[in-house]
């Protein structure tokens, strides 16, 4: 449907050049309490000292459990939220405290795709209005008029351009997400921050939308910060991946590093949770490590409250390797022995760089008791 | 529905691809409204009342009477020695369709038409002011939040704490006194203006409250964030993103507010702090009617019936508008 349409030429800027850089990015949401005078009694440390770099043309994946600060990081980078501390720069220009007018020239280059396709489109506006809105706001008048451009964009994202006058409620979730993508593309951005763009969609639709984003990245050279909790989707889409836990990045590296040679125990635990699937003939395992069976890691308990995160290493309360040092000393995000360049992990006692595992790690006592009983009975 | 695949573009069978014009929520609302028979009938009734109000002079001209002439005093044989109409049923005749007013002998039909005119004018003006104020305050409080929201909220609480009817009665003479010294006669236009002001001052808070809550929930929606990401100004976000989503509560609230204010105005005139003689007024007809109803029940019948029909029709209209906007409503 879209091969006839010429996509806009790739953006200028050589691939690999750092576009969007965050240094020590921190967001603490204050908790107010007290009566009659409200005062600050604490803070949710949603994001606490995150460093990341999105390079031109690449897809940078950000994974982690719910509530680990992924989405907050995305919203900080688009300046929807004001950072408590840290620095955000775009192409070397500091935009941490820039106001709306100062941001105006950069706004068009950093766009966002939202998680919920049902609340991210204004129900009272037509598709045409939704997609042309950003052009109107930024005073962009493309050759041939805005309407023609909107129809072109709808075609690019795989929608019928005749849907110009329709309303969001007439579309399915996948189609709505495509409208959201078209809106993000309207300003010809260089970076798109995709905040769990497929997690609200059907599995069958997820692949279509991810492939659409992948095509846009390749053909238009748009860099992506891809926020997701689905490891398989990130593996499919991102060249570099960062793993977040409780507001901090615990491991960052290339896709091959993270999925093939992870070092941080949390990354190991996450990867062991990816379900293994077999082909019909049972030969090839998808998601399984090359060679050897895979022991599973089951963490105990919940993620600690970000109001009072554990001292030292934040993962220590759920880590099977935790020692006294982990409680006192926060592990820096560094290149561990045997890691490739750019593969950083924050752990005092990194795991061996493989996902193959012979022993099962079960931290939950109740679960272990149940499995033991199962084993004894069967 | 699924996402379109290249093989099958998402066009419904039977629709020509060239005419893929979607129906807006507004259009859908109008379609649903047209199917609601009670709503359509009450809409006609409401329109009829507005036509009567606007066309009162026309009715007077065609009918050949006016509301101020005291027919019963000018001509003998219409009122008896006690001041009541001679003819049965309050003096209803081919000449005076709704009968005559006791004592003064004025024509009831034109009195009612002009009375509706006065009451509706006051209520409509007060409603318009209330809606504008409610939208301004509510949207401001909801969108800005924080300290602004807190102080506006406490101000609304303060005004809501006033007992409404009592405050109307107490404050109306005070406001009159502000405009004109108590010894002088208050001009009619000032009385009307005062009534509008008093009804407005204590009438806008409900809508403001409601809209504040709506804006609070709307502004967290992702489409507002999407607009912010593209660099939209707060003004644009309020007018283009939020207000179109607020028309439903605004419309529903104002259709329910108008009959309330009509009755409130009638109540004030009934008590005697509203519009005074010789300006015809709906509420004052009740006051007069109450004086005579033991001897001449017909006089209160027509204004009362008209008021009941009007208020019921307007409330039904408000309900239907709400149902039409929200298809999930089940009654």
UniProtKB/TrEMBL annotation, chain A:
Concerning InterPro entries, the annotation shows:
AAA+_ATPase, ABC_transp_ATP-bind, ABC_transporter-like_ATP-bd, ABC_transporter-like_CS, Oligopep_ABC_C, P-loop_NTPase
**Keyword Cell inner membrane annotated:** no
Alphabetized, the UniProt keywords read:
ATP-binding, Nucleotide-binding, Transport
What SMART domains does the record tag this protein with? AAA (SM00382)
Please report the stretch or stretches of sequence annotated as the ABC transporter domain: 20-271
Q: Which domain of life is it from?
A: Bacteria
PROSITE patterns (alphabetical): ABC_TRANSPORTER_1, ABC_TRANSPORTER_2
Give the molecular function GO annotations.
ATP binding; ATP hydrolysis activity
Name the Pfam families on file: ABC_tran (PF00005), oligo_HPY (PF08352)
Q: Name the NCBIfam families on file.
A: oligo_HPY (TIGR01727)
Spell out the protein name for this chain. Answer: Oligopeptide/dipeptide ABC transporter ATP-binding protein
Give the classification, highest ranks.
Bacteria, Bacillati, Actinomycetota, Actinomycetes, Kitasatosporales
Automatic annotation (TrEMBL), chain B:
Give one Pfam family, short name only. OppC_N
Localized where?
Cell membrane
Its membrane topology, per UniProt? Multi-pass membrane protein
Q: Which Gene3D superfamilies match?
A: MetI-like (1.10.3720.10)
Q: Where is the composition biased (Low complexity)?
A: 1-19
Region: Disordered; residue ranges are 1-21
Q: Name one GO biological process term.
A: transmembrane transport
Q: Name one GO cellular component term.
A: plasma membrane
| Domain ABC transmembrane type-1 residue range list | 116-318
**What keywords does the record list, in alphabetical order?**
Cell membrane, Membrane, Transmembrane, Transmembrane helix, Transport
Segments spanning the bilayer are 38-63, 120-146, 158-180, 192-211, 256-277, 297-318
Question: Which InterPro entries does the UniProt record give?
Answer: BP-dependent_transpt_permease (IPR050366), MetI-like (IPR000515), MetI-like_sf (IPR035906), OppC_N (IPR025966)
Coiled-coil-forming residues are none
Q: What is its main location?
A: membrane
Family listed? Belongs to the binding-protein-dependent transport system permease family.
Q: What is this protein called?
A: Peptide/nickel transport system permease protein
| Organism listed in the record | Streptomyces olivoverticillatus
